[in-house]
């Protein structure tokens, strides 16, 4: 049994201390009249990032025993983890109001000061917590950990405090772990690993040690070794959520996506009511697993009870779009940007504008699509060429041919259009009755791909546009090229082959060349024996 923080009190149960660092500050002062198991449950929930259930546990314990300041301390820690810093400060101050001896609360306040850059004030709080506790390893360890966990971590200040805690009682594995953390933060990987290895010797069943060792291997991109440590951790303690959380990240980094989902589901189960875990699951289902139906289902569940989780709209928008549900994707994108506008601290990404734009284009809301593409260019000017291409195609698909031509011109000014882009640009020009310009672009298409039958067909139609009365028969050479390349699949190209053969047949009629005229009209009837126009022409030609 370990000694208490305060000499005036004796502790009844300290088996928790060996498993959880947070319990190192728990003495008889804190647990004389309360079930240690309930406190342990709350601490485990906190470690597993199950903040909702952890808060419920500590509030319940505090109601049962309001004079026990440790509960206020943990309420403060949960608030801190939730980034509710005012709530954390209130809880720590309440603990000190109940008892000026709540040194853990002083350390909590110090951590808040560190976050705000008030280093001198933080040091005053820590010095006050350490006063009269020169041999108290618990408070030294807690103070050192505060320097490590603040938003502005200071390994140089944490190290002497953690060394002191270790020297006072070197048997506690957690002190070696925290010391390793300080070395790791200081980029002293050798001493960090040595500290973690010593921790294993002190307590081989503490899963946290293996998690920390894994982080060192991961930092060196030795993912297989890191994964091995984490898998060992999960076997030692199957309910230690942090191991699963780290495994998720490592599996993703290592490209082992097939292993992620069961681990993520295990983590979500351990995290309980923690909404961040559920959001992470939805994100993975959408972004990595591409299981869009399930991502949609999970996302809708989250928003039903937590509508403030604005990022879920992002994953829903993506999932709906990839599922071909464009209206739903549009609606979710709209909600996402409305939420972002309400709170400037919320982030938007290039992909948000892109999905909104594409969803809008698919439901023919080109006003929104154009605006979002413009925002996308503002956000990432390096993608101008790509975005101009998307704008051109979406406008083309929505039959906004003038705008499509405009965007193809803009893209072409940056980089020559691909053959596919040339084709659609030429089509847009054709539909705008700009036949000469269209033909010039189609000429580039067939120059690059001479056997592309459709390109020759469109050159023929452009020629028809420039010769609407058919006097010059400008289309003849292009229809001939079309017939040459399209005849490899007569059934597929039947309709257009009929068009081409009729045109050339009439050309030869005009030339009084009955023999060649008959050949082309016979081609028509071979494709469609019921084509009355061709039948009638053949009847006349055979007389």
């Amino acid at each position: 049994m370990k000694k208490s923080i305060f000499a005036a009190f004796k502790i009844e149960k300290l088996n928790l201390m060996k498993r959880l660092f947070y319990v190192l500050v728990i003495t008889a002062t804190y647990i004389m009249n309360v079930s240690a198991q309930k406190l342990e449950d709350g601490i485990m929930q906190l470690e597993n990032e199950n903040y909702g259930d952890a808060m419920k546990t500590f509030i319940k314990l505090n109601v049962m025993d309001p004079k026990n300041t440790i509960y206020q301390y943990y309420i403060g820690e949960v608030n801190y983890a939730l980034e509710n810093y005012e709530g954390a400060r209130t809880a720590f101050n309440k603990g000190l109001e109940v008892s000026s001896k709540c040194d853990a609360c002083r350390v909590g306040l110090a951590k808040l000061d560190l976050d705000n850059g008030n280093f001198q004030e933080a040091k005053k709080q820590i010095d006050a917590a350490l006063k009269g506790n020169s041999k108290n390893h618990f408070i030294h360890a807690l103070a050192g950990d505060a320097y490590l966990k603040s938003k502005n971590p200071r390994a140089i200040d944490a190290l002497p405090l953690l060394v002191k805690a270790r020297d006072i009682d070197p048997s506690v594995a957690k002190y070696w772990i925290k010391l390793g953390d300080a070395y790791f933060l200081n980029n002293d990987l050798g001493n960090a690993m040595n500290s973690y290895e010593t921790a294993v010797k002190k307590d081989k069943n503490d899963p946290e040690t293996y998690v920390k060792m894994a982080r060192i291997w991961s930092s060196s991109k030795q993912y297989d070794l890191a994964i091995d440590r984490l898998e060992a951790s999960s076997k030692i303690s199957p309910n230690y959520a942090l191991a699963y959380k780290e495994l998720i990240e490592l599996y993703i980094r290592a490209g082992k996506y097939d292993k992620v989902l069961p681990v993520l589901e295990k983590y979500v189960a351990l995290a309980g009511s923690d909404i961040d875990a559920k959001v992470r699951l939805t994100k993975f289902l959408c972004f990595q697993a591409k299981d869009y139906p399930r991502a949609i289902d999970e996302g809708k569940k989250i928003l039903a009870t937590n509508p403030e989780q604005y990022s879920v709209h992002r994953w829903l928008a993506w999932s709906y779009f990839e599922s071909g549900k464009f209206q739903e994707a549009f609606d979710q994108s709209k909600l996402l940007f409305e939420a972002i506008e309400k709170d400037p601290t919320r982030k938007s990404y290039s992909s948000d504008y892109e999905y909104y734009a594409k969803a809008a284009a698919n439901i023919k809301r080109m006003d929104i699509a154009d605006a979002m593409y413009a925002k996308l260019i503002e956000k990432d000017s390096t993608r101008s060429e790509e975005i101009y291409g998307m704008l051109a195609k979406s406008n083309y698909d929505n039959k906004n041919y003038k705008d499509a031509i405009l965007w193809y011109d803009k893209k072409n000014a940056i980089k020559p259009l691909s053959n596919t882009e040339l084709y659609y640009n030429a089509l847009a020009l054709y539909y705008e009755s700009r036949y000469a310009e269209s033909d010039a672009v189609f000429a580039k298409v067939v120059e690059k791909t001479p056997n592309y039958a459709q390109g020759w067909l469109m050159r023929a139609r452009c020629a028809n546009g420039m010769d609407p009365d058919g006097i010059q028969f400008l289309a003849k050479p292009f229809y001939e090229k079309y017939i040459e390349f399209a005849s490899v699949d007569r059934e597929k190209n039947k309709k257009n082959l009929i068009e081409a053969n009729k045109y050339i047949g009439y050309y030869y009629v005009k030339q009084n060349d009955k023999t060649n005229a008959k050949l082309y009209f016979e081609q028509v009837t071979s494709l469609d024996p019921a084509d009355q126009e061709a039948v009638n022409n053949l009847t006349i030609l055979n007389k």
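Residues 326-342 form the longest helix (17 residues). Residues 138 and 490 are 86 Å apart (CA to CA).
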